Amino acid sequence: MSDLINPYSMAIEQFERVAKLLDLPNWIIEILKKPKREIIVHVPVVMDNGEVRVFTGYRVVHNDARGPAKGGIRYHPNVNLDEVRALAMWMTWKTALVNIPFGGAKGGIKCNPKEMSDAEIERLTRRYAYAIADFIGPDVDIPAPDVYTDSRHMAWIMDTYSMLKGRPVPGVVTGKPTCVGGIPGRKEATGRGVVIVAREACRRLGIPISKATVAIQGFGNVGYHAALIAHDMGFRVVAVSDSKGGIYNPNGLNPRKVMEHKKTTGSVVGFKEAKSISNEELLELNVDILIPAAVEGVITARNADRINVKIIVEGANGPTTPEADQILYEKGIMVIPDILANAGGVIVSYFEWVQNITWTPWSLEKVRRELERILISAFNEVVKLSKEREVNLREAAYMIAINRVSEAMKARGLWP
């Protein structure tokens, strides 16, 4: 996130715009502008050299009116409370939009995992899990992987929590390895969801998939799987990038070969079958579909005028600022908002949670079938409301999501 853009301010601005459209009661607006619970923990960790370092960790629950809170944990040098607050709020809207019975939460630790050994990261993860253990659980708040965390981290959290409880509790987190209660298809889920909604958007706009060109900013878990699934589905992926830069080939890239190159060199940059471009240049390529799948705040009032695509599918959380949104809307670009576009991960997390609390395994075929059903239904609902109310897709998505949360809050009332 740019230093100039506060993610929490952006999340509040998006919420307030839609609250006016919905004519929400003031008491609901005041509650929803603030998280329900914010936890800051300072986690001492013994490093490999014997020194003790103290890391700062966060866990924020925004709202749980519709069910247990749900949201990932990220490890990054720039993690801060406002970022985690914003991400928790976006999770509330995301779970409500796709109509799964969760609220929104998020967590993070301010650290640089690239400079830490696996043993140091495991000790950090377990100490953090211990520090927040009283505030998480299958019926309370269910963490998941996010930036620079994966199934290993979730297994460590599950194990730590289970040791504290004296029994296996696989439902405390999602995104685990399948051998300890994880679900098939979870790793690809967010990227697959991005491509499903991109395909539905192409159908709406009459763009043949075989002729659609795609540029993807970000080549981590979401960006790579989006590239791979789009490629396999028949889209032409012409550009991808990571934090070090991007590559472009108008004839198309093979994501598998690009990933082999990245594993060898540490970056997509230098891939011999493409020319090097910057992340900024990637955003401004003349393609049909742009998928920002890296970080927040990359499409702003400064560059929105130079973006010339038909569809933007937000693989990342909060990649487009409110000012840029308006510019893109006026240009006639279809922006599929993050709370719809990247909801595949939390949908499949929900399937994993159901699997865990019922002790009933799901097949990969069932996961993919149900993921597609939920996302297509949500996409159609958002497009329909957008046309009825003459608003952009983000406002329509927010209207549906916020209304569902508001209805739950009204039904439950305030106690005492």
Structure description:
The protein has 416 residues and is an alpha/beta fold. The chain is 46% helix and 17% strand. Among the domains are: 35-169, 3-Layer(aba) Sandwich (Rossmann fold), CATH 3.40.50; 189-339, NAD(P)-binding Rossmann-like Domain (Rossmann fold, 3-Layer(aba) Sandwich), CATH 3.40.50.720. It starts with 6 loop residues before the first helix and ends with a helix. The model has no long low-confidence stretch (mean pLDDT 94).
Global geometry: globular
Query: Which strand-content bin applies to the residues?
Result: 15-25%
The counted number of beta strands is 12
CATH superfamily placement of the domain at 189-339 = NAD(P)-binding Rossmann-like Domain
Integer average pLDDT: 94
Uncertain ranges: none
The succession of helices and strands, N to C, reads HHEEEHEHEHHEHEEHEHEEHEHHHH
The end-to-end distance, rounded to whole angstroms, is 39 Å
Major beta sheet summary:
7 strands, mixed
Helix content: 40-55%
- Can you name the CATH architecture of the domain at 189-339? 3-Layer(aba) Sandwich
- CATH topology of the domain at 189-339, which one? Rossmann fold
CATH class of the domain at 189-339: Alpha Beta
Helix-and-strand structural type? alpha/beta
Tell me the radius of gyration.
20 Å
Question: Number of helix segments?
Answer: 14
- Strand order across the biggest sheet? 9-8-7-6-10-11-12
